[in-house]
Amino acid sequence: MLLKRLGTTLRPRLAELAEDLYRHIQSQTEPPNLPGDADQAARLRAMQKDWLEKLFAGPYDGAFWDTQRHMGERHIELAIPLPQIWATFTFLRTALTREAICVAVTEQTDPVAGITPLLRLLDACQYVMSTAYERKRLHDAILALRQLARVYDLEAFFHEAARLAIMEAQADGAGLLCQTEGQQLQYRFFHGLPMAYQAFARWSFPDYLGTSGAALQRGEPIYVPDYPQSMYAMPEFVDAGLQGSLAIPIPGPEGLQGVLAISWFQSQPPARIPEDRWDHLRLITDLLGANLHREKLEIRMEGLATRDMLTGLPNRRVVTERITTAMARAERHQCLFALLFLDLDGFKPINDRLGHHVGDETLQQVAHDLRSALRGEDCVLRYAGDEFMVLAQDVTHISEAEAVAQRMVETIHRDVQKGELTLPLSASIGVSVYPFDDGSAEEFVHHADLAMYAAKQAGGDQWQFYDNDIGEALAERQALVHDLRHALERGEFRLHWQPIVTLSPRHISGAEALLRWQHPTRGLLSPGEFLEILESLPLMQAVGHWIIETACAQAAQWHSQGHCLDVHINLAASQLEDKTLLDFLKDTLRRHPTLQQDHLWLEIVERIALRDIPATAAMIRACRELGLHFSLDDFGTGAAALQYLVELECSGIKLDKGMVDPMRNSPKHHNMVRAMVDMAKTLSIHVVAEGVEDHQTAEILDAMGVQHAQGYLFAKPMETAEMTQMLG
User: Fold this and answer.
1) How confident is the model at residue 636 (pLDDT cuts 50, 70, 90)?
2) Fold for domain 163-302?
3) Which PROSITE patterns does this UniProt record tie to the protein (predicted)?
4) How far is CA 280 from the centre of its chain?
5) With contact defined as beta carbons under 8 Å apart, do 246 and 222 qualify?
6) Of 234, 467, 507, 722, which is most buried, counting CB atoms within 10 Å of its CB?
7) How far apart are CA 131 and CA 569, in angstroms?
8) CB neighbours (10 Å) of residue 657?
9) Mean predicted confidence (pLDDT) in 362-374
């Protein structure tokens, strides 16, 4: 009866009481853990008002208890924590007890007799509502876990798993920490964490620090409700506002894989995690561990799928990706990218006649040698069978691609032996260059493949460019390369001579040997038309020997005729690096006994001499012991300094035309040349000025004390017969 009288008394104030309940729930969490949607909030208020009316009015039949169950389920749908529901019932007991006492006093009845049924009813409602709440929570959790098991993307899986873990622990956010090399823990993903915490993205720390480190070391969860005051507190996280921390180690078949770190910032961390929540939290962590392990397996499988098992090289599965990436890199760096398609010549007979075991060993050795011969920025992969690809990146000039291709030809060229049977192995290589040969990655491979077949049809053991879209310049270059390879054996090279004169009194004191090519169809070619190509070919060594031999033979003849000329011979970079050069010079001098060795000058360009100063200095000293002189050519155009001249012990320098020509009108150049000449005098270094084309320049040089010069003012380069005639 008291309930009905209490209901009659409170009926005008039910809306107000429902609002008090709503505000009380809202006050239990900071910030309020209530639906932000206005319609949902209104429905919650209306639901509470309706519940209060039924609480006082009855009847307390099945429909009434269904309402209690519905209320419990509705609260979990609105993400209202169960402790807030319990706190609300406590608030309601207090408020209704106060109202019941007032009614009992007014009616002069026993308040205890009336309040006891009310409290029992509220206890029953709380029990039914809480039971429905927990049943709904368990049902939703199982459903969510089933749905979670169907998420295969790791990041999406983490976010859903973190959401469930946060809900189970009534926390604010979560993060995934994975172990890295060097015994570090690194944040990989975040969910629900404040912006201050996002700064820790990819941040790492030693795997023994903090709650996460402790959980990993012990292999069990670590929970601290008062993180700032705990022994695990790290100042970085305290400053970010971390109040409570739960770290659960993530298991895996190969050991612990990381930590699921659940965090409290705004919410009050509970004194302890309820036991019934641990099973779900552990299950979520186990599922997360399974997905992390699956990712590892996928990475391993991807590695196996994209790597050739025999050679260990990347296989054709990565070709398109690697080429596309290299093309983009070439565009960013404003450089070239060359694709070399290699097919082994003679591999089938090796495989057939020497056995597949020898064939496999040959492929492995070729792969190893290709890797060793590449530049640091290049890569090699096995395309199929006996086909390989080399991706040459950051190429600044076509000649670099040619050099790589030639090096690959030389690297593969070998004999393969088993017992007494020896078979040759070489390579046909097709080269496609981006952006000259534009198109898709597939087209790029196709073009290199076509060029490779052209090289094979031409006899193999060589490389060829794909020239369909490169243009006439590259096609002409290829033709020159082809013709150069036969020029020496056909006797097409010539030596011309440019006189070197003394300025006062003026007479011929020497001559520089200059290479020319008498091309069968293009006529006489100057070095500017072919020398750069020649120097990129292995042929340069043989041509260099021919130049030295021919120049020395002519010098010996002039010397025997009484013309004591200084004969200057230019050396290419490859000649300077040739370990047989010294022996060849000795043999050449022995073959020409009338050659006056102290009149023989070997010239090296300044920039080449400075590549390896100790090696260059050693070569110069060895040649000085033979009575020969060395001179730095094009002096003043590079980085040579006084200390280099001292280290190299060069006997002479040649002042470059680029320094000599402007000094008539440029005081700056005039002073620089004077300084060089004065320096050379101090060191007793022989000076020759190049590019002298007018009398004024000759007079200036003479006034500076320069004794020797060459240039069009005195004579242009000429054939041997004309030079001999000029000598008289």
Assistant:
1) low
2) Beta-Lactamase (3.30.450)
3) EAL, GGDEF
4) 41
5) yes
6) 467
7) 102
8) 18
9) 92
11-30: average pLDDT: 67
Q: What letter does residue 409 receive in the DSSP assignment?
A: H
Give me the amino acid identity at 574. Answer: S
CATH topology for 496-514+540-727 is TIM Barrel (3.20.20)
Which CB contacts under 8 angstroms, 24+ apart, belong to 248-251?
Answer: 248/215, 248/221, 248/281, 248/282, 248/285, 249/215, 249/216, 249/218, 249/219, 249/220, 249/221, 249/285, 250/285, 250/288, 250/289, 250/292, 251/285, 251/286, 251/289
CB 95 within 8 A of CB 17: yes
Calculate the average pLDDT of the chain: 85
Beta strands in 142-279 (DSSP E): 173-180, 184-191, 204-206, 222-224, 244-250, 258-264
How many other CB atoms are there within 10 angstroms of residue 118's CB atom? Answer: 20
CA distances (Å), 371 to each of 329, 382, 412, 442, 636, in order?
21, 11, 11, 24, 39
How does DSSP assign 41-105, residue by residue? HHHHHHHHHHHHHHHHH---SHHHHHHHHHHHHHHHHTT--HHHHHHHHHHHHHHHHHHHHHHHH
Instruction: Enumerate the CATH 3.30.450.40 domain ranges in the chain, comma separated.
Output: 163-302
Q: What is the pLDDT of residues 592-624, one digit of tens each?
A: 999 999 999 999 886 676 666 777 888 888 988
| Positions of CATH 3.20.20.450 in the chain | 496-514+540-727
* Percent residues over pLDDT 90 in the chain: 37
CATH architecture of 316-470: 2-Layer Sandwich (3.30)
Give residue for tokens 């186990």.
286
Contact 345, 427 (CB under 8 A): yes
Sequence letter at residue 610: L
pTM of the model: 0.44
Cα-Cα end-to-end distance for the chain:
147
Give residue 377's pLDDT. Answer: 82
The Cα 623–Cα 101 span in angstroms is 121
Tell me how far CA of residue 490 lies from CA of 166, 487, 518, in angstroms.
84, 5, 10
| Residue 40 confidence class, pLDDT cut points 50, 70, 90 | low
Structure confidence at residue 32 as a pLDDT band (50, 70, 90): very low
Which homologous superfamily does the CATH classification assign to the domain defined by 2-145?
Answer: Globins (1.10.490.10)
CA distance 395 to 336: 5
**Dihedral, CA of residue 192, residue 193, residue 195 and residue 198, to nearest 10:** -110
Among the listed residues 686, 703, 705, 687, the one whose alpha carbon sits nearest the alpha carbon of residue 695: 703
CA distance 450 to 464: 10
> What residue has token string 């209060």?
52
d(CA 195, CA 208): 25
User: Of the ranges 33-47, 456-470, 625-639, which one carries the lowest mean pLDDT score?
Assistant: 33-47
Each residue's pLDDT tens digit, 209-223 = 999 999 999 999 999
Interatomic CA distance for residues 38 and 30, integer angstroms: 19
124/433 Cα distance (integer angstroms): 83
Q: Centre a 10 Å sphere on the Cβ of residue 675 and count the other Cβ atoms it contains.
A: 10
Q: d(Cα 313, Cα 267) in Å, to the nearest integer?
A: 54
Residues of the chain with CATH 1.10.490.10: 2-145
Beta strands 652-655 and 629-635 are parallel
pLDDT for 33 beyond 50: no
What average pLDDT does range 584-592 have in this prediction?
95
Sign of CA dihedral 705, 711, 712, 716: positive
